[in-house]
Amino acid sequence: MAKDEKVELEEDLQELEEIVKDLENEKIDLDHSIDLFERGVKLAEQVKDRLSNAETRLKKIVQSSDLDLKIDDFDLE
Amino acid sequence: MKENTANKFQFGKGEVDPEKVFTVSELNRQARVLLESKFSNIWVEGEISNLSVSSSNHAYFTLKEEGSEISAVMFSGDRTNLDLDLEDGIEVLAKGTLTVYERRGRYQLVIRDLKEIGAGKLQKQFEKLKKQLKEEGLFDVECKKPIPRFPSKIGVITSTTGAAVRDIVTTIEERFPPVSVYLFPVKVQGETASGQIAEAIRQANRWTDRLELDVLIVGRGGGSLEDLWPFNEEVVARAIFESEIPVVSAVGHEVDFTISDFVADKRVPTPTAAGKEVVPDREEILNLVDGYLQRLKNLEVSLMNHYREYSEQIASSFAFRLPFRALEDRWQEYDRLSSDLSGGMSKAVSKKKEEVSALVKRLSLANPTRLLGKGYSITTTEEGRVITEAVDAEIDESLKTQLFKGIIRSVVTEVEEDGKG
């Protein structure tokens, strides 16, 4: 997950929560409700996709100084 | 007088037997034998004071308590096995033999082994640094940074060989896989450890543009007070305090508290707990999202009911094709939506589609043009207002009648209010 995706995940969840609450409040006109409904379903799918298709990546800092940074893959033995 | 010493002589009120007069060295020797036999390999508790170390590395000091003291010596050979530095003020439990230093006629404790007890030197250092840093404000709650709810990159500063790194990484993998873990290998005990830990924290911040770490875990597994000591060093405390990246301190076991714990933005009792702290539980979030989906599904029904009413309103207010156009538009929207989606919700969408389809069927049964085919017709005013009751028409008014094919225009000649159609 890139940095912006992480932010998106949090924002998606927030938006999803707001959409569900707004829809449940029934103060929205029908056309807008349908749009919101679609958006909500899409967000939910998006979040689920992100969480399901990912594996933890392990990296090791093999060298770091103020001038130089070297990173390598890393496995738990 | 000399002759007298060889014979009995008067001394005060008693009589002196020259045979029983000790020389100084004899007395000291016998005292020594006596003490050594009586007080051999005993344990003594006391505080070290007046410590001085000779050039040959023997340590001379006093063991004391309130109101009493005893001289003590620890020879260099015994000191080499010692894992603590002798220092004035530390409370010790000493093992040794009481003896007499014959040259001076002083009795003293020859210490072979020694342990620090009570609030030892390290404990005192700890309390001192803790007090100092607290006064400086390094522990202030206002300075604590929040730990992000959804980190994507996590820095771990610990040893590659200990159990801690495994505990942290496996916990993260189990709870919330979609993250990257960046390990900074450092020593976590011994003299060089604190410098390495502090430097790793600085490097994580130094390279923040490239690494983009959201949170740092600094820690190690359990150990003795000495093992955990690097996390009580000032240099580590300051590095944690200066870190722009939030720091979670995970040192030792539940009961261990270190200076790092106090300075860090969050203290957790163990490395495993650190893994739990920095990432959310994926299952919880999936459940949350499923909960939202369920609520959306429930909303679908009422949404469809509204939609039906809305469509029927259109159908009844406008006799002709308009509602079907609107429905066709909707239909297309659902097609698009269902092709966008995959998985569970597309079911919900196709269900919706079926519902719309049923609605269209129902409406088309009521479709006026279909009825026209059976010989019914629709009569409207010239403006298109549907005439459903005779009283709505006026004599001489021109009306249009829609047939299955074509339109008839006619003029009203008579209105029968009660007439049966």
Summarize the structure.
The complex is a heterodimer of chains A (77) and B (421). Chain A has 77 residues and is α+β, with helices and mostly antiparallel strands. Chain A has helices spanning 3-25, 30-52; strands spanning 57-64, 69-73.
Give the biggest sheet of chain A: 2 strands, antiparallel
Mean pLDDT of chain A: 81
E-strand count of chain B? 15
Number of helical runs of chain B?
14
Q: Give the overall shape of chain A, derived from the CA principal axes.
A: elongated
Q: Could you tell me the strand content of chain A as a percent range?
A: 15-25%
Radius of gyration of chain A: 20 Å
The number of distinct helices of chain A, counting runs of at least 4 residues, comes to 2
| Rounded mean pLDDT score of chain B | 83
Query: Widest sheet of chain B: strand order?
Result: 3-4-5-7-6
Overview of the structural elements:
The complex is a heterodimer of chains A (77) and B (421). Chain A has 77 residues and is an alpha+beta fold. Helix content of chain A is 60%, strand content 17%. Chain A has helices spanning 3-25, 30-52, and strands at 57-64, 69-73. In chain A, strands 1-2 form a two-stranded antiparallel ribbon. In chain A, a hairpin with a 4-residue loop joins strand 1 and strand 2 (69-73). The longest helix of chain A has 23 residues, at 3-25. Chain A is elongated, with a radius of gyration of 20 Å. The two termini of chain A are 25 Å apart. The mean pLDDT of chain A is 81. Chain B has 421 residues and is an alpha/beta fold. Chain B is 42% helix and 22% strand. Chain B has 14 helices and 15 strands. Chain B has helices at 2-6, 24-38, 76-79, 121-136, 163-175, 193-206, 208-211, 234-242, 259-263, 271-278, 282-317, 322-340, 344-365, 368-373; strands at residues 9-11, 14-16, 42-53, 59-65, 68-74, 91-101, 106-116, 153-158, 180-185, 215-220, 247-251, 266-268, 378-381, 398-402, 407-411. Chain B has a 5-stranded mixed beta barrel. A 5-stranded parallel β-sheet of chain B has the order 9-8-10-11-12, sandwiched between helices. In chain B, helix 5 (163-175) packs parallel to helix 10 (271-278). The longest helix of chain B is centred in the last third of the chain and has 36 residues, at 282-317. Chain B is rod-shaped, with a radius of gyration of 48 Å.
